[in-house]
């Protein structure tokens, strides 16, 4: 019988569901993994918790997430609640000796993230934060190509994460634009591309940013004529310098009409270049310098068995992974780190590093000057 | 407690694994579905069966698939063995009153498929065949647009399924090229695009085909200098006429160097056109006739919540489904048909219809003339 | 002073204009070329002829093309009139010792084309036919890669030329659908892709074709309720065998809603593959077999100085040629052939070969059987 | 006889040749235009001047550009020399009452550009500067859609011009990196995307920029071990604010390995979005907000007769313009402005505006702060 690990999930929304689904899928795709046992699910709504338990096979449902802390069957707690609740829940879970997975952004501020990270490192629990897109096999390839020097010395990075779900000015004021929730396009989606830039290129040492609120007011409720001022950014633009010496630009934009998932980057090096778009995330474009000009160009690499852990999902190239598969890889790596004591990524420390860049960008924009981290 | 349905899977290869994974995923994505209970897995190899049971959580493993027939806990049997075994297994399962899912091609010949279909229809069991690609939400959209008349009268179809996994002439002679297994590019992958053409446009009434063997001999074993003659096609080209009045072309090719999953079609109608490629299967290209010329063109529709059942997997557009998700939809629809008595698709009858076209193409090629079905 | 060659153009429509423009552009792009002197332009309409003379700088205009025959200043005659007039004009021009450029299709039938070819070869005048698309630098590269063996043994060809300019059933009956003009989608645009297949792969030895008339009647005049039966094809599909041993498919379609210039092909060989689309004709997709799987894929080659004669137009890669530039290359090669006695391509012999395939396809479709050429 | 206008070109390099070619092509494509008479060509090299005269049909060649000033047959002077010479030549030509076309960048500094602009406006001569890419019919469409409000209120702009021709650190120190020539990636190619942003969205009011030299030294001569420090930028990144209220980012990069012509932008508005890439410059991607979600997406508009002046080059859609055609449109518009007294674009004033942004970016980068224009 495969050994198990007890898992509890707090929250049953988009991400709560994605976590449950991913934990269930881990043993299928990763046969040597500990098998996540879905011990408990917590939600403020009793109906929500019950329904999630039923759908995903959690053994019990609760409206009191604190009951998970004392449950000896729970070794892992996944936090998928709004950002403003992360700190309290994570600190409690860590104090109870649980390994913690927390959705991104980990906290509304770098200070909170730092406190959470310190607690986790002191307690020596394993942590992970939900930057799922970097779990993509072709992005592991991208990172490896950069790290191995196949692209030569990196000279430039261009990244963007643009969607349109907040483009409509009539979307009411809510948690998405509440600064207490780590809100704003940069904090909510921009941290994906900020994290991706770190994943690929390492530490950022300087930020020069401008944040902008396009929809300056929003109705207090759907259809209401009363409007409330929005203080967080709809668009953020950053010019960044990496410790390795190169520089780059990053944009976050949740008001980009027509865009559903424009999470893209281009990396240029002295020996090659890579281009990626989450809109076609089973592909990576690669230019290798020095080839015969008559047949040179960007090569469209399709994800396949040569790109671990693609093969854990399907043995044949061209079949493609979906978003939920990325989440499954994320959970499998998290559990492997718990079992084997290997480092996980991105952990709370990494999330804090990302949040530091977000915070620095907000300050840079407000102060009108470059910020050195 | 959600009601369950007992499932057994025969075979633990690429597709056996895909079935197990899909059955497990059904209740997550389709919360109102009966929950598949993985009762048993059968494989000729005891180790294979045991391992599959362990990985996927089947309650028992067996090397004797016939033991599934008497098991009252098994209501559904999935057959994922080589094609030459399908008939025997399916007939036995049907005789035992089981609902049957069978991988494609259902049988090496239309005659066999017909026998299987008749048995299933007489026994009134529910059947389904693994044409997974048409479970794609954007292909459901395509079919709906054609059926509703949004494309006007259809004038032309162009379809292809090309891969390269048999391009290398040094791949040894094996079951893939053994005529007993429904072998050949047309029978093995071409039936996907044949089935897709029927899914979109309905019945085919005439076939004019040419089949060709590119790699005329293969080594009898890896590296062997002894070679055996290959009698099945590497490339098949069909010109087809549809009952609805339009015509089209279809190509199957498993020696198309560089292609991993070129399953593509273009449909032209008097009011619009659609283009699809499995290489980017979360997209559908749509041209709507009659628009202002200055802003007309093909529109790249990205799969999203407007395309059921995309939302069962993720609530946000642009996140993308993967191959395994298509398989999950397939299984969910199969189980829904069992529960509700609704028609399923593609069932054994449909698989027989597809096989009839394959057989007609083989005859057309051999006889050098058009065949009317 | 650069030496000149006297040119006359018959016809002032789309192609007449394109010829005039191209002749004028030749010396700019090809500085070592004879300079075409635009001696005369002929058109049935006096106004048309006068206007063309004015626009393009022809020294004289005439409504009687026969006056060109005796003009000692005219060494080259370009025929851009409707197809049904080509034979008479070409034979007269040849008889007068002129070098002849004729637009495609060269004649409504292979028999006519043969007569024209024989006359030209006997008279030893230089001929060329307007298959302009193959003058593309990246297609010269494609041909070279195939000829040199870089793609290995060719196994498969798939070609299409689809546009939508005849999709509307209310376009009146006119010369485009008059069989006397070499009409039909295959004869009018399909010959481009037929010619391209020969350009790349050489002689075709067998044809199995089905032609279809989608719009079976057309109004006799715009808006008229009286309709006339259309006897030529809107769609033609061919399965062809090449002398070199491989086979392929070809489609011509002028009723493909939404398509403006879908002139495309894919060529597969044992060592690589090429894909091309005229919709993006400054690019060629190339897959090279045998590479490291983790970084293999189709490479998008952009036209540049490595692809002669691209550099004659602009010295920097990525700038792109336009359609008129292809026509300029065509004329430059024609003139070079006249000056240096080198072979030109495609000449009347090649046009006859193409027409033979078209004729064979028509017969194959009518007879319901494969035709050996 | 069509009326003529006498033209002289100074310089016979890449752009001198492009100008000559374009002037010659104007009357073909624009039959109502004055016909440019190629009166004279000047080059420091006598051989160069003679050869250009021969190739392009200039009536005379000279090594002394000042002789053009007194030539009453010359009404227009095109300046295609290195940037450091533009000011002197343009001022002299203006003083002589000539209309002046000058290649971009117009001058190494905004101050020089201002002086040139003032002189031209005082003398009331017509001026134009070679920002050829915006002459693209689909960019005229883009501008029109923005101006007409079809995209709603514009919220965001993202632009880049990246090439790789200076990526190699062994390219010797030369005029391209000499600050006297308006050198640097921003000044040399970045001004194209800066100008495009103004063409589409109007005036820029604030710039926050960071410029970077990737290749900090270059050999003094090919292969030399002696190296000289490079002071101009290889990469420039700008965050800009437009007078209309929206903001955007701009990148210039001439060290982007693999890129030949990545001149791209994306514009987002409340009612739609546009994306463009010079790599496929006969296309424009358009998203129209408010459509039915199930069929919405970005539409690929192909250049055609609906996009003036496309039809001046070829009457059928999908045929595509090339780079030299853009240059022809540029010259035709310049000549039309001379003939009809209509405004031309971009004139010296516009070039000065562009140069002001370039200068502001350089200052912003040096000072580490945002610059208000």
UniProtKB/TrEMBL annotation, chains A, B, C, D:
**InterPro entries hit by this protein:** Gfo/Idh/MocA-like_OxRdtase_N (IPR000683), Gfo/Idh/MocA_oxidrdct_glycsds (IPR050463), GFO_IDH_MocA-like_dom (IPR055170), NAD(P)-bd_dom_sf (IPR036291)
GO terms, molecular function: nucleotide binding; oxidoreductase activity
Q: Is this entry keyworded Iron-sulfur?
A: no
Question: Could you confirm whether the keyword Oxidoreductase appears in this record?
Answer: yes
One Pfam assignment: GFO_IDH_MocA
Q: Where is the Gfo/Idh/MocA-like oxidoreductase N-terminal domain?
A: 5-131
Source organism superkingdom:
Bacteria
> Which residue range or ranges hold the GFO/IDH/MocA-like oxidoreductase domain?
141-274
**Keyword annotations from UniProtKB, A to Z:** Oxidoreductase
- List the protein's name: Predicted dehydrogenase
